[in-house]
Write a structure and sequence with these properties.
Shape: globular
Distance between the termini: 13 Å
Bound molecules: guanosine-5'-triphosphate, magnesium ion
InterPro entries: P-loop_NTPase (IPR027417), Small_GTP-bd (IPR005225), Small_GTPase (IPR001806)
Number of helices: 6
Main location: membrane
Largest sheet: 6 strands, mixed
Protein name: Ras-related protein RABF2b
Subcellular location: Endosome membrane; Prevacuolar compartment membrane
Strand order of the largest sheet: 2-3-1-4-5-6
Order of helices and strands: EHEEHEHEHHEH
Structural class: alpha/beta
GO molecular function: GTP binding; GTPase activity
Length: 185
């Protein structure tokens, strides 16, 4: 029969990586060019049908600012799933994402379904144009990061997708993939 699954999901990642934008896209189908930085955390819920089940995500969109770091365990504790978000045009945000993965591996629920989202995938084309114009090698850098992220995800038991809250690319897909991987109780 059809199963109803309630699932707590947390988004973690560097300031400005696009956590709130991904949630806004997923829950409301919207994108805001000047999304305000989250204070503390924000709560949303969204229901998704997958195969044999209806998954109700209870989503905690955390604040990336360092001063809120100590609040994070409240949101990831007991979470069934996490999306760790970085910005593909910002290497430092990828390093920050890896720190979050480490923290979840040591402090989080061991059965947590974890996704790594390389967000702002739409910026690749912008960078390509810039790189062709001034030969900065940006394309190479971004390409390497994608492979690096994929490999990192594989080694650490996450699944990886590049997303864009702006164009909606892979946004529903990443939540859908999480829903499929949640344990069926
Ligand atoms: P904090 O709440 O401060 O931790 O940041 P956040 O991770 O929630 O980032 P937020 O969603 O606020 O996005 C930061 C900025 O990046 C905003 O101006 C967004 O419009 C922009 N942004 C988010 N996602 C994308 C994307 O996929 N593509 C592009 N081009 N811009 C994006
Ligand atoms: Mg935010």
């Amino acid at each position: 029969g059809n199963k109803n699954i309630n699932s707590k999901l947390v988004l973690l990642g560097d300031v400005g990586a696009g956590k709130s934008s991904l949630v806004l896209r997923f829950v409301k189908g919207q994108f805001i060019e000047f999304q305000e930085s989250t204070i503390g955390a924000a709560f949303f819920s969204q229901t998704l049908a997958v195969n044999d089940a209806t998954v109700k995500f209870e989503i905690w969109d955390t604040a990336g600012q360092e001063r809120y770091h100590s609040l994070a365990p409240m949101y990831y504790r007991g979470a069934a799933a996490a999306i760790i978000v970085y910005d593909i045009s910002n290497q430092a945000s990828f390093e920050r994402a890896k720190k979050w993965v480490q923290e979840l591996q040591s402090q989080g629920n061991p059965n947590m379904v974890m996704a790594l989202a390389g967000n702002k995938a739409d910026l690749v084309d912008t960078r390509k144009v810039a790189a062709e114009a001034n030969a900065t090698g940006f394309v190479l850098q971004l390409t390497c990061l994608q492979e690096e992220a994929q490999q990192y995800a594989q080694e650490n038991g996450l699944f990886f997708m590049e997303t864009s809250a702006k164009t909606a690319a892979n946004v529903n897909e990443i939540f859908h993939e999480i829903a499929k991987r949640l344990p069926r109780v």
